[in-house]
């Protein structure tokens, strides 16, 4: 028996299979991705099972989702070594005010989640399209929605409230926070390994989307993303925090909603500033002034936002890095560590260099007042645990 975890993103659908032993959900034994899911696309299925990577290029199809999932179904059922799937766990970015914990998906719940599309236009439509496609392909399996916002249900009112008229706050215009499945995983790892993690913790999830979460007693108490996944840090293609006056100025220049949305979500961040790429690895390999400027701004913004959250925590006991950049970019971690040296952060250069694999590692020097960890995140495992709990 096993749980299938699904993360249907804007360009790629990622999946993993987590066996259940003794009622405990295990790390994935099979991971894979599907690309080419845009209408009329030719889906590409990649997966790794028992150390063997496999690749299947499918025909162009009117409904590539349907095509890809039928192929995935064949793959799962065709190999007797793949454990039988008992339920499907979906990462859903926005749970709004109502869903502060995972839920089993029903038709009315799917409708409620559809109403939240405008709050996360880059993520929610793909997440829900994924759920619908899996419901069609695997109608007999229970499906569970696990929300990125749920971990932040513990934000205190003073943190989630914007300085807006109350009527708007009551409508749900407030800070929600995202990357919650990742933070839940990182927090659980830290609590298992470090007594200090019960104290003041700053977690940095630095991937294509990037955010920070401040936690105390293992619970989120502040986070850099807000009402939408646009706020806070500079990201691959997103601006992060920006003075709303800029948007008013652009509207006056005739920019409409769609053009602003594209600017804020898709044309800014590392891509916009460098004019080269949204991909940190690609920018690190580029010695141009534009690439350096983009990386410097990314780093600076991470320091600035960290300072704000550390002030809210009243100090820092543990700093943790996750996400593609957090897990692999040695220089970014070294820079952030140096610029937080005034707090007593000392990263050991050798340990920092070694932390680029898939290992959980502490990278602080013995004299560091703050523990520094690299925790390769596992959103799929958290979602699978949630699904197992609910079914
Ligand atoms: N070795 C590396 N050095 C620097 N950045 C890296 C490295 N490996 C991956 N990254 C960066 O991680 C980012 C993607 O993060 P990831 O968490 O995988 O993305 P997603 O949010 O899509 O899940 C990209 O900017 C990528 O360049
Ligand atoms: C919420 C969010 O930004 O997610 P991702 O990092 O997957 O884009
Ligand atoms: Mg991500």
UniProtKB/TrEMBL annotation:
The gene is ackA. It comes from Albidiferax ferrireducens (strain ATCC BAA-621 / DSM 15236 / T118) (Rhodoferax ferrireducens). Its EC number is 2.7.2.1. ATP binds at residues 14, 205-209, 279-281, 324-328. It comes from the Bacteria. This is Acetate kinase. Signal peptide: none annotated. Belongs to the acetokinase family. It is found in: Cytoplasm.
